[in-house]
Batch of 2 targets.
Target 1
Amino acid sequence: DIQMTQSPSSLSASVGDRVTITCRASQGIRNDLGWYQQKPGKAPKCLIYGASSLQNGVPSRFSGSGSGTEFTLTISSLQPEDFATYYCLQHNIYPRTFGRGTKVEIK
Amino acid sequence: QVQLQESGPGLVKPSQTLSLTCTVSGGSISSTSYYWSWIRQSAGKGLEWIGHVHSSGSTNYNPSLKSRLTISVDTSKNQFSLKLTSVTAADTAVYYCVGDFRITRTFDYWGQGTLVTVSS
């Protein structure tokens, strides 16, 4: 299985901050990567697919980049509703595998 | 808007079979654009893709669960189901049913999740 390693596992930030989360794949996955946001008690929600394509309805402050083994999710200006846990997901080969998550908390 | 809803027992005894059903509303499970998936989430393993079924009946399973797993579809009821045999405490998790859009390979539609606890 492809292992997805996210960093950091958690971070504290203020409203308006720029936040970057990194995901590394244990082998090359081209750009077959998605980012998901999960709030407590809720199911995850897709933000980004294909490493950099914004899902319909997702605010433009979210962006993704990367290819191969290294990927980033950037939130350009953190909003109160963005405090959540973020997961990367590789959809290059089966079984699909997720990172362990990055919890974004209020500073 | 497509909605998914899981149903099934919240408590299963060790060595028994975990059975869940997902009912799809607001759309047809016969759509060829989607795989119908199960994903689980536990504190120990995080988010884990279990497997999926297509309306044609074709399946793809996580190798780590394959020997115990069956996912099936009932197009007449707009439902798909999960059966996991010989469960242990390690199978305790929140189980989500999910619509997986084949073109973008995104998990577009999620059920609310159902907690299944394996305990005697």
Target 2
Amino acid sequence: GESVGLHLPTLSVQEGDNSIINCAYSNSASDYFIWYKQESGKGPQFIIDIRSNMDKRQGQRVTVLLNKTVKHLSLQIAATQPGDSAVYFCALRDFNKFYFGSGTKLNVKP
Amino acid sequence: GAVVSQHPSRVICKSGTSVKIECRSLDFQATTMFWYRQFPKQSLMLMATSNEGSKATYEQGVEKDKFLINHASLTLSTLTVTSAHPEDSSFYICSARGGTAMYEQFFGPGTRLTVL
């Protein structure tokens, strides 16, 4: 199986600050990466994705950065809001399957 | 669009019984469905991949005789936990992929299984 790990299990930020969640992976052949948000008792919700031929992709308030040299993926959330509080997972595609990282819990303090 | 439902959302059963969980793609045809399990405060672990009309492919360490997967149509996959034991208690989540979404998978809301 694929090895995907996260650097921090819990991240606390003040409302309005920017959040950065990191993810490391080991399979250099992975061609597609995704960030998911999961609220308690619910299924994962797609946030943003990036293909391996890109190093940056921006969405609404979110940016994903991919550094293939060091096999590192990050999710940046701008102006973090209380509604962003959740667990965030990175996932990567390996052939036809998706493997998830261990997750980072984001706590947004009002 | 791209809605996936699961039924039931919660189930409590006695040890030794079997439980069936349904996963449906409501507005698209799912050529591939994935089943995951998630323990509290842990990540999603891929259990198996199923393609419509063919046998499921199980991940290493997942007992195929215990976790029966059927993907009989392009909108429905079922996971049956046979002879459930307390250690099978978990959050089971399905996802589906199909149509023009070559890469993305759409997740169901999950099923909380508690085995007494």
